[in-house]
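Ticket #330: bound-state structure for acetyl coenzyme *A.
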Amino acid sequence: MLKFPDGISIVGTGSYVPDKIVSNFDLEKMVDTTDEWITTRTGIQERRIAQASEAASDLALKAGSIALKQAGIAAKEVDLLIVATQSPDYQLPSTAAVIQPKLGLKNAVCFDISAACSGAIYALIMAESLMKTCNYNTAMIIGTDVLSKSVDWSDRSTCVLFGDGAGAIVLKMNIKGRNLISFDWGSDGSGVDFLKIPAGGSRNPILASNIDQNQQYLKMDGKKVYKHATDMMYHSVLRALNQAQLKKNNIDLLIPHQANIRILKTVAKKLSLPQDKIMINLDKYGNTAAASIPIALDEAIVQGKIQSGDIVVLTAFGAGLTWGSIILCW
Ligand code: ACO
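RESOLUTION: The complex was predicted; output attached.
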């Protein structure tokens, strides 16, 4: 039931990160932290930060146009655009609606989804489902986040973790190779308080009283997220492999959500995977939330880490809590 039908393929990817690099040494000048603490606890060495004028859609447009070009697809062919983001341009309308005319996706149905760092996985699963039920031939998903604008730059426990970026993936029906073959996804709202931006929604609108208490910024119980993350990704990968009738030792490349090197290494150990079978780029970008998986996939392709016939596993966890995994046969 959870298997994808034959022939939904990834035909193009693209990614974009802002030019501005903020290193751990730069952060040492801003908060009470050290490069040594950040590197050993997270694996992150630097992150990209958007300009004041750059919004999530600006990053997404750059990633999306690269993905379209790489796929060799005209913008008007795209039937569906799903944008995963936790840092939309506006509360209303969707960031997908902002992107649509600028990318020229005039025939696409466009909407956003909110699944935090699992957003790109959720978007891929939803795109597949809609391609099947609505008979769409071509879809694009974009994960884009500018969490630097939601981070409290005086809070050392969160500001060192995140970076900005966008990644896009183009899907096409009835193409051989690079196929999505199975998936697993899930949610557990009992973890809703572990990671949240308290103000800015209908619960706590942007009012001076909330801003005075810094409620517009991201708050995280890092230990609770950490504890759940390894279990969520590990079990989700096993379930997705099982759906595809594959085993741990069939994995050629694991592309996990880039949150923390210790989480990634623990998941890889549980899956008995050597380090050269895990895609890691968090040292350069930090946690780019919904953009993390599509950026890592794009870089893995560009760096020649994926060969025809490889079994590639995408897996993520995020606020909500949410999680999801996808098995690809390249
Ligand atoms: N520099 C120096 N010291 C720091 C820093 C910092 N940047 N941040 C925290 N500390 C201190 C703490 O204050 C604490 O000091 P204390 O012992 O005097 O109280 C000490 O370091 C240890 O802090 P811990 O929180 O116990 O550190 P831990 O080893 O758990 O690492 C971390 C913290 C990196 C946040 C870890 O818990 C983690 O990675 N959690 C998962 C977070 C995550 O993945 N979030 C993304 C979710 S995806 C999404 O949906 C956006």
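RESOLUTION NOTES: Residues 33, 37-38, 41-42, 116-117, 156-157, 160, 195, 220, 222-223, 225-226, 229, 259-260, 287, 289, 318-319 surround acetyl coenzyme *A (CB under 6 Å).
TICKET STATUS: resolved
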